[in-house]
């Protein structure tokens, strides 16, 4: 400040005079290497996510997930099958070295080593190089894992009996009946449920809900057998046999 010439204010150089909005840097000088997260990168992520979401929705509408009949704890013949993305582990458990007494090896040890190796891959090669042929260890681990998964999945698909799997999970008609009726009590006590289901829907044996057999034919089959059903299954009295056969015959009326 000088006398007689007024007052002068000196600005602090630490405070910018012109405040500018928070604009992302111009990355044009690094083409193809980096870009602003907002909105460039995030917008691309949203677009890709939207395409996959619409694709999944179309797929679920065009090919709905197949449903099976209600689980029956008395059906010991049912063999569950995992979803397609776990078929490679399902196939691994079929081999002798990974099943039976060695089940722990197939279920825990081998998958643990495989996924552990994938988790260690980033630490085995920490270089900045991004080209696969310049990173032999991570690339080898990934290719080995993908090849193993594809091979085991293919083996599982080829060797599985899909017709039998479809038949065992098929939704079958259940009969409406009185579970306190004498004929049903005889049926359940005679261990017929194990093959024909607790609602006559079938299992190891055929469905009895809509059978075309008469009461006399049903009684004869229970004693003498038919097809894959051996003879001698019935061990009760003739009177109970007739009551049970008559009860089953009335289900289809």
From TrEMBL:
Q: Where is the Cytochrome c domain?
A: 178-252
Instruction: State the superkingdom.
Output: Bacteria
Q: Which UniProt keywords apply?
A: Electron transport, Heme, Iron, Membrane, Metal-binding, Transmembrane, Transmembrane helix, Transport
Tell me any Pfam family this protein matches: Cytochrom_B_C
* MF annotations from Gene Ontology: electron transfer activity; heme binding; iron ion binding; oxidoreductase activity
TM stretches of this protein: 102-124, 136-154
Q: What SUPFAM superfamilies does the annotation carry?
A: a domain/subunit of cytochrome bc1 complex (Ubiquinol-cytochrome c reductase) (SSF81648), Cytochrome c (SSF46626)
Q: List each copy of the Cytochrome b/b6 C-terminal region profile domain by range.
A: 27-154
Q: How does it sit in the membrane?
A: Multi-pass membrane protein
Chief subcellular location equals: membrane
Subcellular location per the Swiss-Prot or TrEMBL entry: Membrane
Residues annotated for heme c binding in this entry:
192, 195-196
Cross-referenced InterPro entries, in alphabetical order?
A: Cyt_b/b6_C, Cyt_b/b6_C_sf, Cyt_c-like_dom, Cyt_c-like_dom_sf, Cytb/b6-like_sf, Cytochrome_c550/c551-like, MenaQ_cyt_c_Rdtase_cyt_b/c-su
GO cellular component terms, semicolon-separated: membrane
State its role. Answer: Component of the menaquinol:cytochrome c reductase complex.
Q: What is said about its interaction partners and assembly? A: The main subunits of the menaquinol:cytochrome c complex are a Rieske-type iron-sulfur protein (QcrA), a cytochrome b (QcrB) and a cytochrome c (QcrC).
Q: Which family does it belong to?
A: Belongs to the cytochrome b family.
- What protein name applies here? Menaquinol:cytochrome c reductase cytochrome c subunit
